[in-house]
Amino acid sequence: MPDKPLPDNEINAFVPGPRVHIDGRPGGPLSGLTFAAKDLFDVASYPTGGGNPDWAKYNPVPTRHSWAVQRLLDAGATLVGKTITDEVSLGIVGENAFYGTPINVNAPGRVPGGSSSGSAAAVAAGLCDIAIGTDTGGSVRVPASFCGLYGIRPTHGRIDVSGMMPQAPSSDTTGWFARDAQTFAQVSSVMLGESIPSALPHRLIVAVDAFAFAEPEVVEALRPLLEKLKALIGDVREEVMAPGSIVQWARAQRTIQPSEAWQTFRDWIERCNPRLAYNVARNIYRGSQIPESERHWAELVRREARGRMCYLLPSGTILCLPTTPFPAPKRGEPLSLASVQRDRILCLCAHGGLTGVPQISIPGCTAEGLPIGLSIVGSHGSDAALVAMTTALGGPV
Amino acid sequence: MPDKPLPDNEINAFVPGPRVHIDGRPGGPLSGLTFAAKDLFDVASYPTGGGNPDWAKYNPVPTRHSWAVQRLLDAGATLVGKTITDEVSLGIVGENAFYGTPINVNAPGRVPGGSSSGSAAAVAAGLCDIAIGTDTGGSVRVPASFCGLYGIRPTHGRIDVSGMMPQAPSSDTTGWFARDAQTFAQVSSVMLGESIPSALPHRLIVAVDAFAFAEPEVVEALRPLLEKLKALIGDVREEVMAPGSIVQWARAQRTIQPSEAWQTFRDWIERCNPRLAYNVARNIYRGSQIPESERHWAELVRREARGRMCYLLPSGTILCLPTTPFPAPKRGEPLSLASVQRDRILCLCAHGGLTGVPQISIPGCTAEGLPIGLSIVGSHGSDAALVAMTTALGGPV
Question: Cα(B354)–Cα(B11) distance, rounded to whole angstroms?
């Protein structure tokens, strides 16, 4: 958060049109806090835009709030805006050809990360305290890393996704961002419906394959936070996360997710022939062309990856890895370079959608002045224990 | 042309923004006539939009007129507007997701045909006397048929394409529309740089495979005009146009044209990641995926087709066929139906791009109240002889 916040319109975090404002219930645990919602979450009486000018045309204006928005309002947080997202949540760098790229105040000239781009940009710029996003293939974790925020992808299936626009349901999750560990713990407790425990994990696995895949300066930048984490936990082991290769996991995720996304969007495509950025249309089309035999293969890899995560992560064990292989890339890179960057990012994110484990990206490190996140991953349902770990790590390294 | 012309803004033929108006040179052969130019033709000091909001960003505002615009201005015609086109000339029905679908006054509720949609709609509605368009795979012939206009695809390579936005150069041509035979002959003489001869073709070939491919009601609707044509020429033969099948010709054209379009647009795509309607993006992407072996096969079919046209069309012989297999489809059809319609249309148009022969679509017939064109085709360079034939056919059947 900069010393002097930029005005809203210079951040370009919020969707165009009338700004939503709904006061939270007085007296709740989040009273006094403000939040923003990615434009994939229904807010009653406001169209859900989905980051594309032709999505709202096809879908009625919602008459009730999404579960996540209602949950935060009930807890006392005040909704102050809906945020820009990559088109129909397909994108990882946070550039939207229709609504522009939100400003990453912590990395000038760089992308904010996506697809929850506006949510991350708004929190980073201090326009709100909390923001909700979605994470299918990295859409909370990546902007958290690029913008220097706490960001969680919860256990798949744990958070009610009612009123959240789907993309690939077997990987879709609702996540959230905050700037500081205390606010992050507060909102996490509300969203998880569980108090944050005081006991910490007692074993740490360092995913050596994931660290090896990241740029050397990222590994160097994360070292102080990693050392602090090791010191807090004590029992540390180095392990390969994906013995079959993280690239194979990424390839399986890039088979399952686009195939499901095609099923989600095909009727819209057929009826509306929507306007889309070239790369988004290309990716949707590619999803339509994936043969059943490839999907079956990918499901086997998913099964194996889930087994691997169960083996690696018994209760009380967490795993750590760089959230992204590099800090936020420059804005406006040519398409072929952006595609390569996306594929590299996916290699460190695919385990989330593939196996459903919870993951938190922790801020505090910078590589050449740019934020970079360290992630901790736990077993299914261990979300609150991961939050406890972030609280214990506390403020600056 | 309706009895009482609709106002401009109800036709949606012209591109948004300031309307271009450039007076023609006084005293020329087209003095007193007005024309419009598809937004693929450069007009000095006006951006060439190409039917897409991200094309002009990538290309500088032209400093000189395209050859075709200059030619008509020099001949005395006054330019009164730039017209809507399918995005980057990729499309055959005339629906543009960014600028809307021009109104076809002669077929209410139906598409105008594309990609020269606004040019055809403007002439049909009486907003101008003449309009120029481009025809790569049918983009003048199809809207001429659907809107009930005279429209020509000249011999490939005959008309200077300087300042015309390319798509697939080995098939691209500059064409034009008019409502009546006399105006059509006048503008044709200017554009071809040749006076229209008085001698008529002396032999007519009826392309039985093309007639068989059209809907029965189209064949029935064209019969009176066909009989008039037969009577004027006298020597009539029935022949198969494409012994290898018109579907094979269409497939070859659908290989060559998208491959070349990808070469034309790839740098724009790479640098701008432009916004496009889904089907346009899909078709560009498919063009990028066509293997070299398929392109080689298609070039062989093109060579064979050119040989066939040379054999069929010695000097003095013309061939006739339905311009389109059906009249203008309804507006807003679902994507899969629109794709099938496009492929069927292409089967009657592919010979143009494939072989480069000139073709004129002649109006005057209707099927169930909707305009439908009869086309005449001649050998390379016989454009003026085809125009002479349309003049001889004269007014209503």
Answer: 33
